[in-house]
Prior knowledge:
3 copies of one chain form a homotrimer. By secondary structure, chain A is mainly alpha-helical. Chain A has 14 helices and no strands. Chain A has helices at residues 3-6, 8-18, 24-39, 43-49, 51-72, 84-99, 104-109, 112-140, 145-157, 163-169, 185-201, 209-230, 238-249, 282-297. At the A-B interface, α3, α4, α5, α6 and α12 of A face α9, α13 and α14 of B. Chains A, B, C: Keywords: Ion channel, Ion transport, Membrane, Nucleus, Potassium, Potassium channel, Potassium transport, Sarcoplasmic reticulum, Transmembrane, Transmembrane helix, Transport.
Amino acid sequence: xxxxxxxxxxxxxxxxxxxxxxxxxxxxxxxxxxxxxxxxxxxxxxxxxxxxxxxxxxxxxxxxxxxxxxxxxxxxxxxxxxxxxxxxxxxxxxxxxxxxxxxxxxxxxxxxxxxxxxxxxxxxxxxxxxxxxxxxxxxxxxxxxxxxxxxxxxxxxxxxxxxxxxxxxxxxxxxxxxxxxxxxxxxxxxxxxxxxxxxxxxxxxxxxxxxxxxxxxxxxxxxxxxxxxxxxxxxxxxxxxxxxxxxxxxxxxxxxxxxxxxxxxxxxxxxxxxxxxxxxxxxxxxxxxxxxxxxxxx
Amino acid sequence: xxxxxxxxxxxxxxxxxxxxxxxxxxxxxxxxxxxxxxxxxxxxxxxxxxxxxxxxxxxxxxxxxxxxxxxxxxxxxxxxxxxxxxxxxxxxxxxxxxxxxxxxxxxxxxxxxxxxxxxxxxxxxxxxxxxxxxxxxxxxxxxxxxxxxxxxxxxxxxxxxxxxxxxxxxxxxxxxxxxxxxxxxxxxxxxxxxxxxxxxxxxxxxxxxxxxxxxxxxxxxxxxxxxxxxxxxxxxxxxxxxxxxxxxxxxxxxxxxxxxxxxxxxxxxxxxxxxxxxxxxxxxxxxxxxxxxxxxxx
Amino acid sequence: xxxxxxxxxxxxxxxxxxxxxxxxxxxxxxxxxxxxxxxxxxxxxxxxxxxxxxxxxxxxxxxxxxxxxxxxxxxxxxxxxxxxxxxxxxxxxxxxxxxxxxxxxxxxxxxxxxxxxxxxxxxxxxxxxxxxxxxxxxxxxxxxxxxxxxxxxxxxxxxxxxxxxxxxxxxxxxxxxxxxxxxxxxxxxxxxxxxxxxxxxxxxxxxxxxxxxxxxxxxxxxxxxxxxxxxxxxxxxxxxxxxxxxxxxxxxxxxxxxxxxxxxxxxxxxxxxxxxxxxxxxxxxxxxxxxxxxxxxx
Lengths: 298, 298, 298
């Protein structure tokens, strides 16, 4: 039992962690996800010409986290689609956002104050998914730390991690970038979050799961609401990364949101494809050429 | 018990549904599938230069439905390959079609009257696969309607749904189109069929499984034989879709087979990549631009 | 019991097959795999800019065989990552090869005599993986010959079979070639090896598993060490293939390592993308055109 539990905060956190996500929070998650699908270039035309493909894309956006987690753990990727009510709800959201007469529903949900509420609610679901993913993996692999972290991560990131293939479904192919090479804020936050939840699950972090869910959710809500409201693209992790990465990896990790050249997922903080690589030392250049020639021969 | 069962038709349908598909109907399925592989540009050269890759493509064409269904349901995608006799039979068909001296086997099976018989027999297998897929999924997820429909659909469509990746195996990459964005006739028919079979399985459609198999197979045979014999490309679903889609989705669904610009699967009714999108209203254009800028900032 | 067992060779082979691969041989496997990742164009820049993506690529190189085998058999692809010590060891190897001050570690392990030892040790692990894969598949599918061969093959080939997607993770996309279309030496050797091990497992090859492991490992070590040391690219299978393939498939199988145009995996013998196809007979050309027109119509 940690300090926070002695305070009423502990009860608040426990009640918060026990909040049912279906149907209200899930609906908000679906709305934000499908909104961001609609922002993608060509998405509206696709909904008119190939409504089934559009619906399938929307389902990937809404349930991508479950699909990826099930794929990782060798379970049925289609398994979550047995929750008929969730699928019908997501379908209804998709239909209203794309086909509501006079675009009424879209205009309502994208009204900024309303949208900010939905964005906050989506983060509640995201953090709960990370926790559930880590928990589920812990149940299957008691000491599989990397498995827990991977499962939590894909549950938190969702469709972003399969963005190349979600785009392929829409007839778009951008192999030069992907969510792992250039992480957006939610993906990176999910990665850090899954590490925290794994440390908590394995008792290395002395905090209860309910408190961690509460605090991490608050952090995510503040960041995402701020970024959505101000159209800011400063990563809150940048100061810490700029401190640690040069020491560990010899340079600044590329996540700096200087430009927004192309975006591959609406809910993502976009990052510019990396600038030309820094000039290598003469030694490294010669070595690389020599090794490539040797490798070719092999 | 429905009316059709009271007639001898019921007995005919029951006997038809109980027909063993192995080896005769399966052989026909393999022959038509590998024939269509041979039609693909570059397939013959590939069989000479990379026979193993050619064989693997043929296996995808013959067993793609099982692979996809197993992938969806979290079962071993390689599982069906434990049926050694089926694999050996499919291998023999591949070898004869590609390497028979003087192309004798190919000439025999592609003689139109003979080919039409094989096409009809292939449709028997397709419909049986859809029914089996829905049945299997129902066994695993009693109330998983979407799971049943998805499983039946991939069983019916087969390799077409993974055409991008089957082409990738041949060194071809066409990301601008895929079978979901531009559905060919068999894929669309499998989609409608799986809905019917799911409604039947969940007792919403008052017809026995044997009768549904019989009638749907007759429908598929008539359509495919007619389309193959006349080189027609009119979709039998077009009238109904042109009635419903504008009402539901605001425009005609793009499946109109006006041109045959590129084909991605020989057994598929090809559809032209969609024409340039209709001019958007000024409001939609402004909105889209404004939203993309906002999304970039996020 | 076969002849070799009567000799001390049998005891040597048995002791050899019982050698534990962790941690020494596994470390050598990781070192060679990550070395070859480092040779890839852009890999060093990626490690500086996107260290997480670089780490993930290294994990694919080190554990690709387990991931693919689990995918094929419907087990959790992330399952092997529950072996924390292996993952930590591979991570340490990755870090040292990419980030060791003054590149010391890299210089040590790529010193040719040292590298040759590691290459030999890697082949020990490769052959053991093939045997284990066939054995595991045999346990699940007693008579699934093709399943056994496929599992052994992916265990032996590892990341090479998913090279297109490993490259995609690095932002590289080369759809015109893949490891199945143009097999490198290790992939082809794994294919032949898995056939031998399957024949042995099903008692068609009268040799004990220990002896087969021993002799096949010796063969692989001799070939790979020779090819690495001399930068040779002559395939040891070419004479046999040039004898059999024209008879079976009508032409020489394309594996001839005449040019090294592009490489997609450092441990692979590179092969030139196929030259323009040989002139087809007038009959084949007409037939192809006619069939494509007919297919388009369908």
